[in-house]
Amino acid sequence: MRLRIYILFLLASLTLSLQAQKRVKLTGKVIDGDSEPIELATVRVAGTTMGTMTDLKGEYELLVPASDSITVIYSCLGYKEEQRTLINLEKDVSLLIRLNKKTRQLQEVVVSEYRKQTNTLQMIDAKDLKLLPDASGGSIEAMLTTFAGVNSSNELSSQYSVRGGNFDENIVYINGIEVYRPLLVRSGQQEGLSIINPDMVSGIGFSSGGFSAEYGDKMSSVLDIAYKQPEAFEGSVSASFLGATASIGQSTKKFSQLHGIRYKTNSTLLSSLDTKGEYKPSFFDYQTYLTYKFNPKWEASLLGNISANTYNFIPQERNTSFGTATDAKQFKVYFDGQEKDKFETYFGALSLNYHPSKYTQWALQTSAFVTNELVTYDIAGEYWLDELSEETENSGNTGALGIGKYHEHARNRLKASVISTSLKGATKIKQHELKWGFTYQFEKIHDRVREWEMRDSAGYSLPNTGESLEMIYNLFSKHDISSNRISAYLQDSYRLRTRLGRFTFTAGLRASFWDFNKETIVSPRVSVGLIPTFSEQLTFRFATGLYYQAPFYKEFRDTIPDENNNYIVQLNKNIKSQRSIHFVLGSDYSFRAINRPFKFTAELYYKKLDNLIPYEVDNVRVWYSGHNSSKGYAMGLDMKLFGQFVPGTDSWISFSLMKTQENLSGIKVPRPTDQRYSFALFFQDYVPKFPKYKISLKAIFADGLPTSSPRHGRESGYFRAPSYKRVDIGASRILVGGEDKLMQRGVFRYLKSVWIGIDVFNLFDISNVNSYYWVTDIHNAQYAVPNYLTRRQFNVRLSIEF
Length: 802
What we know:
Layout: H1 2-20, E1 23-31, E2 42-45, E3 51-53, E4 59-65, E5 67-75, E6 82-89, E7 93-98, E8 122-124, H2 140-144, E9 150-151, E10 161-162, E11 170-174, E12 177-178, H3 188-191, E13 201-207, E14 221-227, E15 234-240, E16 243-251, E17 255-264, H4 267-270, E18 275-295, E19 298-323, E20 328-357, E21 360-387, H5 390-395, E22 400-429, E23 432-457, E24 460-462, E25 473-497, E26 501-514, E27 519-532, E28 538-549, E29 557-558, E30 566-568, E31 570-571, E32 578-593, E33 596-612, E34 615-618, E35 621-624, E36 630-646, E37 649-664, E38 667-669, E39 677-687, E40 690-702, E41 706-707, E42 719-720, E43 724-736, E44 753-761, E45 769-776, E46 782-788, E47 793-801
Parallel strand pairs: 1-7, 11-14, 25-30
Antiparallel strand pairs: 1-4, 2-3, 2-5, 5-6, 8-13, 9-10, 11-12, 13-14, 15-16, 15-47, 16-17, 17-18, 18-19, 19-20, 20-21, 21-22, 22-23, 23-24, 23-25, 25-26, 26-27, 27-28, 28-32, 29-31, 32-33, 33-36, 34-35, 36-37, 37-38, 37-39, 39-40, 40-43, 41-42, 43-44, 44-47, 45-46
């Protein structure tokens, strides 16, 4: 009996063992986002030691036990992990698995020190742009205005001035191609989108003076933008009260493409202005960046941009109060008429790059820029300028200082095209890095301007001659211009290690010729950088050079009026390039505090200016005199403290002091962009104990700019506008991303991040002054009525990256 029991037990154990050893075959293939096989990918069964790897064809084979349910994990270095759960596994199974490349940003990065800057070009990280509270819609320029030496007093505009220069003195490159902006824009309301699409940016370089010879002929600054080449499928979508953006990119072994679309409407912001009416601004922009690699040595790329901006406005009324408590005034206008503006620009650049060796590259680039701009308006207004003193209110009198009518008319059209071809090269020879380039550029401009303003004060037209009806302002231009420019540069950078430290020397020469005025200009430029042996935390740099502002369209239009303020534009063929000699001395000190990295930067500069073409600034329009009749200087000190005040986020504080001066008809006056002091703050923080919440704050406090009455100039007298004070704040919450477990579920696993936020523009509701409207009475006395900028506004935004 006992023997029988042992036999039955043995047979049962054998049956169970055979059942446990029953296995099924799991086969398949692992591919990437481009359907290419992935070799050496790991295939393993969760909770066991069973696993295998794919072969050169991406194929695998694995015997797994039959089971009710198993989970198979597929992984490879550089790719997102994938899982598959197999239920009631009793038969052989074949699975095709696609692994996507990892493109998710690291949530925590340990920074040992910041990059050493041995020249005047600083590199900027644009990763926080999407969360920046910015009324202009998240532009690169909005971040620049918080830098030392960079100033902007109009939140509706992406234009900026650098160290006393005007907006036209800043040169902008995208992938090594110089880009242009619309030329007839008169105010920030008309401007719309910046030409730079932040969703497509991979690198930013910026120099506020003393830049090298490889950059063109401008007197103030260089903004060097690089667009990215996606490594896998990626994209982003964002929307807010200001508009919407979308971008998408994709890459294979040879071909990559990146597309971006933007739409903006700032009607909600414009509704806070003193001038009430029907605002219909519409700004659209499409950009693309395509690259194709024929082989490891040859690559072609195409950069394209289409921009269509319209600004339609039907004004109704304006009511502006200004002055002091003891001298308060009120300006009231009833309008009739409308304004219709259109700005269309097209830009394309084709590049062919050749890399014969690891240290040598050549590039052949051809680009074309075309703009079609139309500004039309007929606006009539009846205005009252009253005193609001207590005496006039008690007496019941209006206290009228000026009563009148005006009619503004414009029919302005500009068609311009710029076509250029460049051949550039770079090579490294031991400690030398040589760069050279040659550019030919053709320009064609079709200019038609017809502007006039009629003004009537107390029943008398101004100016009042008693004999005829005159316009207070009249401008006429009819010109077709074609010209050619040739430029070339040669530059060498040399690195030397001595007992004193590591030196970097950069010397270059740039030359240009313009056949319109038969002028040849030569610009030598030199810079020296030092990282001393006694302290690796310190960096010193010095740069000097000769910089020219080659005239383009607006600078050589001679607009000197006659005795009745009639302007008939004539082209000044004797115009010369404005000139500036830069001297820049700077230093960086890197250190760690509260166990985080920081860097303090200071730059002292002096710019000697001559052959200047005097100009006045009206909102964002620059009016040139058309003659080289002035000289002057700009000097100052820029300081910046940059670091991680909060772990994992970059913030900075900047402070600038500046003094400018120019000689106008023997009278020394400050330049129109003389901002004597400015303070800026960009700060980011995570809410304590709530890391999913993030706060971004941008604050600017800057001196007011000098201004004077129209068509008289600063030499006849000037005053300063009130200081510019503005604080924008944004609060954001991450819904998907980071360590959120939701990131691993369903469709959310394909998303890098989802942010939702709210912005408060002009937090303290400060009435900043942008420009002035001048009212003239019958006695020719003028009153400056301030044009205030936007008031407090709220914005809600949603941003998705995948």
